[in-house]
Predict the 3D structure of the following.
Amino acid sequence: MRSPALRASPYEPWHQHFLRNRGAAHAFPWLESPRLTARERRLVACSIQQFQLGEWARGRGLMRRASTHSAFAADLAFLPALQLFVAEEQEHSGILGRFLDREQIPRLQTHWIDGVFRRLRKLAGLEVCAMVLVTAETLAIPFYQALRDATHSPLLRAICVRILCDEAAHLRFQAQTLGLMRRSLSRPARAVRAFAHSVLFHTTTLLLWQQHQRVFRAAAWTFHRFWNEARREFALLERHITQVTAQQPFLDSARPPRLAD
Ligand SMILES: [Fe+2]
Ligand SMILES: [Fe+2]
């Protein structure tokens, strides 16, 4: 029987979601799919290398900060859910790594952008750490959409679809966390947080385009389309955060999606 603390936790549905997702069958055509063409390889290799590195995180700093944060200390479902979330990110990195190995594209050990993001997360508290993470995840959505459309490889397309499904849920999970952290803040303090997040997001959006525009152009995306898609995802994220901050627990939009969504 579940304890009352677990029953009351908004993270219990998330814990269940990540468990279900981990157990779900995700088949990829590793054997049947042809290799990338030389042109595709030239267009997407560097971007996949960077994302493979960026998706890898042990999450130790995040877990340590989360375990001592007042908003979550008493929530017995939060840390197990967070652990499964980190494991899902590691799985993304593992899948992309296997893809790179199959294509004989070397895995990166370091990249300056990854280094900057990791340093930012290390220096920061839980809220900034979550803000930096969710910024990358919000932008991962247009990136994987474009990567999917830029290739004819059934394998790479299947990998993108799987990651896109997971990332859509991650945005809601992170919105839940950021929303709960902001609940105790005054209106002006929330507005300052939202402004800082917006600056971080828009700066990172420009950087992402600068780094990965070859993939977007290969998928026939213009900068205008990319900018609008990215901002649309960010607006959705902000709406989820505001709803969690302002309302009673268990708002539908903050719940995990069904796996079939
Ligand atoms: Fe991911
Ligand atoms: Fe994610």
